[in-house]
């Protein structure tokens, strides 16, 4: 989203061409049950429309401009537009079942990792899709965050890099969990991610991967 319209096919293609290891996207359900790719619950910030996604049909979402003429994509369109591994974040817990149906139909457990802030969504997708890799996301967390991840069967914790400490990273690693830092958009945060020995990081600027090799 730092260099292209957020959550659009254009942005995902850019990320793939830039050599990123995976593409992260966000999922909400439309009024008629489509898996719409958008970060916010409302369309106001990222399109020229207004109102909640779950009050709009897919046809209505298609009429919106998501930036530079891009349209709001659905999940399967992203899968067809790029070949990269995908991390699909369930923003609306109700989207878990719809995502599971697509993953089972297209046999996506190896390609698609599923993440969410919602413990129940992580647990449900793990129940519905055998072998799926899951990620519990947290911005502000208590001392039980590692136990929460284990309780819902998550293999990875994705934590706010601004609050992530060595203690939490080491605790997670000791319990066999991977740790991802988000959002790593500066060289300082990239240095921190490496100092904490994180297993990965998300960024809005794919080029940081190239420049960071020499400066972080």
Please describe what this structure looks like.
The protein has helices spanning 9-17, 58-62, 75-81, 95-106, 119-128, 145-151, 166-174, 187-195, 208-215, and strands at residues 23-29, 35-37, 86-90, 112-116, 134-138, 156-160, 178-182, 200-201. The protein is of the alpha/beta class and 216 residues long. An eight-stranded mixed β-sheet has the order 2-1-3-4-5-6-7-8. It is globular and about 45 Å long.
Which helices and strands appear, and what pairs or packs with what?
Layout: H1 9-17, E1 23-29, E2 35-37, H2 58-62, H3 75-81, E3 86-90, H4 95-106, E4 112-116, H5 119-128, E5 134-138, H6 145-151, E6 156-160, H7 166-174, E7 178-182, H8 187-195, E8 200-201, H9 208-215
Parallel strand pairs: 1-3, 3-4, 4-5, 5-6, 6-7, 7-8
Antiparallel strand pairs: 1-2
Helix pairs in contact: 4-5
Label this structure with key terms:
216 residues, alpha/beta, 17% strand
């Amino acid at each position: 989203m730092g260099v292209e319209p957020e959550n659009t096919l254009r942005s995902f293609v850019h990320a793939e061409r830039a050599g990123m290891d995976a593409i992260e996207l966000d999922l909400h359900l439309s009024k008629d049950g489509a898996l719409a790719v958008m970060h916010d619950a409302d369309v106001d910030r990222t399109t020229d429309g207004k109102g909640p996604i779950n009050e709009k049909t897919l046809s209505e979402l298609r009429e919106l401009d998501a930036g530079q003429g891009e349209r709001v994509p659905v999940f399967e369109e992203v899968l067809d537009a790029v070949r990269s591994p995908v991390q699909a974040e369930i923003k609306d817990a109700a989207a878990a079942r719809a995502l599971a149906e697509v993953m089972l139909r297209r046999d996506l457990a190896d390609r698609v990792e599923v993440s969410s802030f919602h413990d129940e969504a992580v647990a449900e997708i793990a129940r519905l899709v055998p072998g799926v890799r899951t990620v519990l996301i947290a911005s502000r967390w208590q001392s039980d965050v590692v136990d929460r991840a284990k309780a819902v069967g998550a293999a990875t914790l994705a934590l706010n890099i601004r609050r992530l400490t060595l203690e939490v990273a080491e605790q997670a690693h000791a319990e066999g969990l991977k740790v991802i830092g988000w959002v790593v958009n500066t060289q300082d945060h990239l240095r921190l991610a490496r100092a904490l020995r994180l297993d990965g990081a998300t960024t809005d600027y794919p080029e940081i991967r190239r420049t960071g090799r020499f400066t972080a």
